[in-house]
Amino acid sequence: MKLPAVLPSLEFNYITILLVTWIYTPARSEITSLDSGNIDETLNNADVALVNFYADWCRFSQMLHPIFEESSNVVREEFPDLKQVVFARVDCDQHSDIAMRYRISKYPTLKLFRNGMMMKREYRGQRSVSAIADFIRQQKVDPVKEMHDLEELKALDRSKRNIIGYFEGKDSENYRTFEKVANILRDDCVFLAAHGSLSKPERFSGDNVIYKPPGDNSPDMVYLGSLSNFDLTYTWAQDKCVPMVREITFENGEELTEEGLPFLIMFHLKEDTESLEKFQHEVARQLIGEKGTINFLHADCEKFRHPLLHIQKTPADCPVIAIDSFRHMYVFPDFSDLTIPGKLKQFVQDLHSGKLHREFHHGPDPTDVTPGQDNQEEVASNPPESSFQKLAPSETRYTILNRDRDEL
């Protein structure tokens, strides 16, 4: 019996399917999987690296995977050199040591690295191909604006922190250090540079770097260390670019909240620079030793009306100082007491010792009552719950690993 001639037809259909699949299957992304054996070499050799810290069981991680891969494809077309931009990922279940090293507290977390150094600000923008690609493009923009005339300095925005470098040439080791520092601190300072004959009047004894703080009448500060020493130059610039008292906004609120430190925050009217300067001065004078245990912040009264109402205040009451421990908010009794030596420091120490929280439950400590004074009418205070905790990473966007905080 003769079999029907169907095999050629089947073969033709099979080849057609293969061709169609090949044509419509997107190019495979070049995402580097990191482990303890290759992470340092990979990140150290990349100008910019965006690393996705994920867990396979996390639904937000699963949703991000195809977007992250397509973003890598788009960026690779513009920056084909792997030394320019690297997209990488870490399976945090498989490599918990790496997750602990970078203090991963939520999935997915997208961290930015420059030449192996992790940047403080991670990617928190929209999870779309265009948004992630645009973010990387911004990171590749030269952070140093080259001056062509020293008259340009007259047009500086003196509301910002400016660092100006004067160099003999762009190919020098000094300038490469300056450029590296500028890349890391690009979000905190404006960096400008002059080269060659244009910079000569400012290079009295070699290459020179000057910091111009905010304010038209603020005096310049000259860097006196070695410009070829990255660590010294970066430490100096960071001290100038990242103020001890930072402004909190709705844009950086999640980032500041995730640092996990309580807030000492002053609410003030935007035009009330005098009260802000007074607060900054007292923080530097009384609380320099508390750096790293609490975040010093200031906020616009008008923009943050809700937290003010939370502590039964309005913009008309500003300036107002308060602590948000992420459990409760505690109000500094009287702003006019700010300059009393040790008063602000005691307020912060009362938070750390648990006194503010203890008084919340039980009323003032017996040691705070004058001997012989009747204490029968003293009752526990009633501080409101945290307001800024609401700015923390959302469970509708991340899988949060641990949100427990000390009871303060």
Describe this entry's structure for a reader.
- It is a single chain.
- Helix content is 33%, strand content 18%.
- With 408 residues, it is of the alpha/beta class.
- The strands form four sheets. A five-stranded mixed sheet has the order 1-3-2-5-6. A five-stranded mixed sheet has the order 7-9-8-10-11. A five-stranded mixed sheet has the order 12-14-13-15-16, with helices on one face.
List the strand order in the largest sheet: 1-3-2-5-6
**Given the structure, what is the number of helices?**
13
Ranges where pLDDT stays below 50 over 5 or more residues in a row are 1-12, 14-27, 375-380
How many individual β-strands? 17
Distance between the termini: 89 Å
Residues in helices, as a percent range: 25-40%
Order of helices and strands, N to C? HEHEHEHEEEHEEHEHEEHEHEHEHEEHHE
**Radius of gyration, rounded?**
28 Å
Q: What does the largest sheet look like?
A: 5 strands, mixed
The whole-number mean of residue pLDDT values reads: 88
Strand content: 15-25%
Structural class: alpha/beta
Q: Which shape, going by the Cα principal axes?
A: globular
Please provide a brief summary of the model.
33% of the residues lie in helices and 18% in strands. The protein is an alpha/beta fold. The strands form 4 sheets. A 5-stranded mixed beta sheet has the order 1-3-2-5-6.
